[in-house]
Amino acid sequence: MTAPSHWLRNVAIERILKAAVDRGASDVHIKAGDVVRARIDGRLSVLTKQALTADQTRAIAMHLMASDADRSLIDSLKDYDCSWQAPGVGRFRVNIMRQRAAYSIVMRVIPEHVPTFASLKLPSALERIARTERGMVLVTGVTGSGKSSTMAALVNAINAEAEKHILTLENPIEFLHADLKSSVTQREVGIDTESFRMGLRAALRQDPDVILIGEMRDPETIDTAMKAAETGHLLISTLHTPDAQSTIMRIVAMFPPEEQTVVRLRLAETLHAVVSQRLLPRAGGQGRVVACEVMIVTSTIRDLIADGNIAEIRDYMADGGEYGMRTFDQHLTELVTAGEVTFEVAKAAATNPADFELTFRMGRNRRTPTAASMGIGASPVRPRTGPHGVPSVGAPAGFGASGLGGHPSGANPLAANPLGVGATLPPIGTTPSEAPRVSSPSPLGTDSVFSTGFERMFES
After folding, report:
1. Bridge partners, 263 (sequence order)
2. Which helix (H) or strand (E) holds 81?
3. How large is the angle between the packed helices 353-362 and 328-337, nearest 10 degrees?
4. Residue 193 and residue 168 in contact, taking contact as beta carbons nearer than 8 Å
5. What is the pLDDT, as a whole number, of residue 66?
6. Which residue did the predictor score with more confidence, 17 or 363?
7. Are 233 and 189 in contact (CB under 8 A)?
8. 215, 237 contact by CB (below 8 A)
9. Over the stretch 398-439, which tens digit does the pLDDT of each residue have?
10. Rounded-to-integer distance, Cα 220 and Cα 215, Å
11. pTM higher than 0.85
């Protein structure tokens, strides 16, 4: 008896996703007119032989959608977010979009286990941040820099140590937290609450100790978040900003000019810490390592924010090792010295590439990393440079070799070719006549999913 074509189609896509997860992929891209691709070690690698048609991509989108009600509206949808999981495959954050009148899907892989600070190789200063009782903690960085993993690690640390009510607002829910010492309430925007704004308003009436917001997208949400911090809650959220200084400037700039002075004063009183992240390719070519900047709001930094002297904050961060602070350039210098990343990669990621190169080449103001600079002790505070001086270098140890985004095992299972099939790519078999020919190996070797059998699974 022949299996239904839709069942074969679902089996095919799930096996492709499993192949991507097994190779440490962070994202999977599925698009009409293209082969399936996976982001492995930061590079978008070809995963299959066959380019998908518009009808095949539409069928995959419907398979991933959360409910029959949503599936009935697929032809009118322009953008759609959900989460999806399958036993033996994994969990994914899914975005379905329209492009060129067809469908495109991007799936972010969600690790099976909730991460910890140790597994992510994050600095020990975050352990102290997790123990704070109130204020705003912001995790920032570009898309794909590991912000969700770091926030999950913060929640996990609180959940494991404190008896609190943790309430999260996410779109969609990514990591699933069990109730340990704390009670964790996870609400998904669009399913459990109408919007981040409405969910945050309601949260203040739900007796939370800790509130996590997936993203602060507008002034009203930021205003409500500051109110939550002002009323004694710990508020954890994210922004798409590259570093601590730009985070403060972005928040203030989101409000009208006549309100910015008051916003600055409120932010100075409520902000507790900013953790900014960048994922960099490792020098060996396999895996990625995290570069991390940490700003703890001390009384001095609080005054700088209130007075509008934001440009001076980075100099104080460079000298704030006793509080667990570090700048990007400090950590980049350490990574280059340790051979984790190349100088060229570090320079491109530096806050000020010219200053970073000058400081690194001349070796000025080097100092040995101390326990205090990792946030676990005290160290002498050296005189800071002027606002326009060369940033200091030398940073605390606190990041391992794997970092965020590396292969789960920390090993190097793949050859120079990201899919591990040799230095050259074999020719492909068939591809739709209207699509360009793409050379791609089969990540599953001789598995029929990636031969002509794969094409038959998508026949309607």
Report:
1. none
2. strand 79-86
3. 50
4. no
5. 83
6. 17
7. no
8. yes
9. 333 334 444 444 444 333 333 333 344 333 333 334 444 444
10. 12
11. no
